[in-house]
């Protein structure tokens, strides 16, 4: 079954080339004026009051709950503390999404076997997500204080020094001194009051102003890690969701393959065998009346039998080729390459054979890519390389065709990528317009 790379090989997935809007100013000069920089500054400034409230709530409630554990009130107070931290976590995820552009999925919900307050408290206390939210409340507070102090100091200092030429007149007019005092003691004082000093001050302020957005961005990287690591779903929960999705993809693929086999049998070999049975019945009736006509009908039926057998062989090869079972990937891929419309060089370098499931997926991956090269690539030649790197089985199919392939939604390559992802595989497509095209697949290496 061939999988098209899109609506034509030159545009696998129908994507259009989008040119980036070019800025006249380099990134270093426009950073202080970008919405992203102001959003990150707002995030850091808001972090301090929110962290203070969250930290105070967590310390108070946990201390109170721990002190009351000698009574029956300690468990409900601790559960309320963890539930409150989960509510703060929802606020933090929303804030990170709005100001930092970080999308963190909601953690897994509480799992309660039965309803009721007791079951809810037990679920909250057993949930690892709840304790990770509490840990976030403790860790985020000192970091928020540090980030707030650094960001606000740098930002205010930079803009104040940069705009000093606009407001230095305040000192001689209202403060009775020449300018901003840089140094002073009982004997003498140094003021930034002449044009040179004012210009240097503005220049230093410009450096601070240009550097501050990048420093704030570096500070928010820690916030991103904290939010993603402590307020999102756990790795185990994420892995369970991935496996459930992969299981759905495998079931859908298997169902589609069964429908294809049923359709091929019904429309191909079965229909041909039904016609063959009717022809043989007619030949049997004419055997005594017109032996010559009966012989011709039997001869035609013999040809139909050969055709039906060939269709069944092709169908069986599409399900699982015998050469793959008997001789492995090298021989099976060589057989596929021999049927390709363009010359194909096959190089298989494997120390041993992987399990049949991985071997079959590798075979059908290469087979589909070669069929698409035959139909869409307009290539002069192609190569297939298969090798092993550590615990990964690597496949690479290259051609010198027109290129433009993308594993975008709705394309054949997207479906192939989903199949590989179902077994923890990866599909990478490198296909610039005009070619060449390089499709690399990784599969887990599993020995028999």
Give a description of the structure:
The chain has helices at residues 27-30, 35-67, 74-100, 117-126, 128-162, 164-167, 170-175, 195-230, 235-289, 291-319, 322-327, 329-338, 356-377, 412-421, and strands spanning 180-184, 189-192, 344-349, 382-389, 392-399, 426-430, 437-444. The chain is of the alpha+beta class and 448 residues long. The chain folds into three domains: 34-230, no CATH class; 241-319, Single alpha-helices involved in coiled-coils or other helix-helix interfaces (Up-down Bundle), CATH 1.20.5; 327-444, Histidine kinase-like ATPase, C-terminal domain (Heat Shock Protein 90). It has a five-stranded mixed β-sheet. α2 packs across α8 (195-230) and α3 (74-100) crosses α5. It is elongated. The relative contact order is 0.10.
Instruction: Please tell me the overall pLDDT.
Output: 79
- Tell me the series of helices and strands, N- to C-terminal: HHHHHHHEEHHHHHEHEEHEE
Structural domain count = 3
Structural class, please? alpha+beta
Q: What fraction strand? A: 5-15%
Q: Spans with pLDDT under 50 lasting ≥5 residues?
A: 1-22
Structure annotation, total helices: 14
Share of residues in helices? 55-70%
Shape: elongated
Can you summarize the main beta sheet? 5 strands, mixed
Strands, total number: 7
User: If you compute it from the alpha carbons, what radius of gyration comes out, rounded to the nearest whole angstrom?
Assistant: 35 Å
Main-sheet strand order equals: 3-4-5-7-6
Terminal Cα separation, in Å? 27 Å
